Amino acid sequence: MSNDNHPIKRFHGQENTEQTRGRENPERSHGWENIAPSFSALALHAGYDPAEHHHSSGVPLYQTAAYALPNEEYASRIVFSELDDDIYSRISNPTTGILEKRLAALHGVSGAVATSSGLAALGDAILNIAAGGGRILTSYRLYGGTVAAFSNVLPDYGISFDFAHNPDDPRSWEERIRPDTKALLVESVSNPLNAVADLGTLAGIAHTHGIALIVDNTLATPYLLNPFDFGADIVVYSTTKSINGHGNAIGGIVLESGAFDYASGRYPQFSRKAWTLRTRDGRERSILDVAPNTPFTARLRSFIVTLLGSSPSPFNSYLTLLGLETLSARLDKETRTARKVAEFLDGDPRVAKVFHPAAHDYAYRDLASKYLKHDGSTLITFDLDTEERKRDVLDALRLFQLQANIGDSKSLAVDPLLVTHSELTPDELDAAGIHHEAIRLSIGLEEPDDLIADLAQALDHAYGIANN
Length: 468
Fold this sequence. Notes:
By secondary structure, the protein is α/β, with parallel strands linked by helices. The chain is built from 17 helices and 12 strands.
């Protein structure tokens, strides 16, 4: 990474080194330039200096629509990209800005833009990379709402999608790339089956063809996996899930590596001059002129989030920051608990198959060891023998709550076929490998023995007492 991508480097969407109202360089104010802070230290401190916020220990909630500007000259400097500061919360907000800087620091990059939801993050990223039309190459190992957007919304705006028939085979990706393909898109760890993408290989394929690799890293989180370490160009999250971790705020974020060449000619939207990016003397500029080191997220903020209105509420950003502080502690416990629960299910004869790195026949063990810290996942999906017994088990659970969410501090269960992937056609479900008898679990902070006891009694309810 360049010095611009130092993990403590200040970031708020544009690249100005000048001090701004209420936001100075945390590198100088914390004295972190001589140390390499841990993930947990960054999750607690990055992007925030109490001295700049009336010495408030916690990040303040700036619940405001707009900001008092000292004078006309100050407003002019913001408008002409000479000064990085807040003017209207649809564009940027101090609370949200700290969330963006903190998540950027956790990835070792500079470019980050928060959005109102995970789908907004992914949708905005695709609109940004495929502006003017083009194709995205992906697979059906995606959240059901994502596939529905690809089928029912984005094609109406000139964006088409191709699907790798065998996403585990690099040739399946290679053979589907076309002249107008703008990006490869994968979930680093798929929902709900824990399939691990070979990010290094996919990055090599994408870059050989001069196209970007977009990684949805929601399930892994930056604690278990940093996709930028393996060649990703753009990373998106639903921060609603484990990053927030408490099921109380919807949000998303888009980050960029700062290393991809958007001036190659394949992406003319980044070189296009725009009046809104003009200098004081009326000279039009492009995003590459204004933000050469973070063009993807700068364009995302300037044109898509700002003009289409997908910015998050400051309150949701505040709640997400609170959750982010405990991400490493939560994931450490939740992945250990998930392993014990998966081992219990894997040893129960009433369970047909378990999709988790702890399962004996897990197909992605080598990739999990390569890419994931602790080979970890907080998600477990398991198949039973009939749909009727699946429903019986779900209805009999008492400690697990039935919810269409993952990454909560509480353990959750759901029927993925019915709830989270109902948008997929039968053929798409087959391609994704999701079976009619599947149950998805999201493991929270309860003790493993309690969760195992709940699953055991639910299986007993559906099948009768196990003889093992």
